[in-house]
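Lab notebook, bench 4. Still working through the backlog of constructs that have no structural model yet. Next entry is a single chain of 313 residues. Request: give me the structure tokens for it.
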Amino acid sequence: MPTRTIVVVNSTGRQAASLVRVASAVGYQVRAQLWERGGIVAEELEDLPNVTIFEGSLEDQELVQSLFKNAHLAFVNTTSWGDEVAIGKELASAAKKAGVQHYIYSSMPDHGTFGKGWPSLPQWSSKFTIENYIRQIGLPATFVYAGIYNNNFTSLPYPLFCMELKPNGSFEWKAPFHPDVPLPWLDAEHDVGPAVLQILKDGSRKWSGHRIALAFEVLSPREVCAKFSAALRRRVRYNQGPIEIKVAIPHGYREQLDGIEVLFGKYNAPYFGPDLEAPDEALGLWEGFRGIEEYAREVFPVEEAANGRTWMS
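Model written out:
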């Protein structure tokens, strides 16, 4: 098969970087857009074989056009930096104009569209708006819906996924989720790349227009804490409660957190909405996933050390 070119944007993000690593390793020519060089992940990607770095803003139309010129495939995960909807539409239009054969977009549901009185989450509804635009212009596309990142957990005082270290050496995770309602989980760094690569190999004939719940485990908060406890050999307790803001957070994120508190804390809404379930399709794409317990045992302590934490000693 001739060498194929894949466009990946926001390439230092967990999802995108995972695909860049895997695609470059198996011989795809990867065009990796990033906002600026610098940083551990950007430096790593720049050193990978078969990777060409495109540095600059996605609001630069000339950069976007050159990024997609003669490309065959694309993986796009837009972010809330800048006007996400405008950028998402521009990327899709450029890919359509360039004749991209299969466009993978990392989307999320808009719970406000299900007619159940659920609120829309602002950072998810933007993605859903972009998904609808991609469908409207007839771009051959598949939509992956990412589960909760294993890598979100930290003992730093960030909201929602803080594993707070207690004086007795135990951990407590406090969040608004019901303790026994299952949630979908994904190790983005380890598993997005292989799963998306399989979608691309299968092709748009199989997956065009399809939504895929990209999560490999479905576990309740109590079950997550039990797996952390087994991995760390420490007591890990779940405490359902309101989200606590102890540090400065990005502009607009407070509204997202407020919505999460209502959507999942009050209504116990299904994470991907009522029509999309995990993990069967994800497991059909990639069986070598890294689960929560393995993550907690092998990766969490390493990430904690990188953040200056010393409880592992």
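Notes after review: The radius of gyration is 19 Å. The longest helix spans residues 84-98. Flag for follow-up if needed.
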